[in-house]
Amino acid sequence: xxxxxxxxxxxxxxxxxxxxxxxxxxxxxxxxxxxxxxxxxxxxxxxxxxxxxxxxxxxxxxxxxxxxxxxxxxxxxxxxxxxxxxxxxxxxxxxxxxxxxxxxxxxxxxxxxxxxxxxxxxxxxxxxxxxxxxxxxxxxxxxxxxxxxxxxxxxxxxxxx
Length: 161
Description:
This protein is α+β, with helices and mostly antiparallel strands. The chain contains 5 helices and 4 strands, in the order H-H-H-E-H-E-E-H-E. The protein has 2 domains: 13-55, Winged helix-like DNA-binding domain superfamily/Winged helix DNA-binding domain (Arc Repressor Mutant, subunit A, Orthogonal Bundle); 74-146, Alpha-Beta Plaits (2-Layer Sandwich).
């Protein structure tokens, strides 16, 4: 039963599913008709597969903005050191709720959490760093500013084949 699957469980996708997702990565507004013509299958097949991919949480159709064009001028990666370590999950959950966060991961390196953020400007970034620095369990942070972003994209599905 699809509704009972865990979100982290990998669902089986065939070649057509990958081709459909690749089309939607290029243009999330691409019509089912255009996708069907490109892939030489019926519109109904495309419609049912896209709906299945959405229902299963494999894809989510969203509008993606160019952060710089809408006013985000300060990007950074923040390494977060957590002490004591049992607080790591609690700290991660708090950080994940902050709207500036575009990426958050637990790491195995020198630090415990990696946080990528997009802020309006450096003052906003400073406020953000101060916010997480005062959270219970945050021992230290180390911020790396991104001066220029050369690539910002979704994963290339062809790497999975």
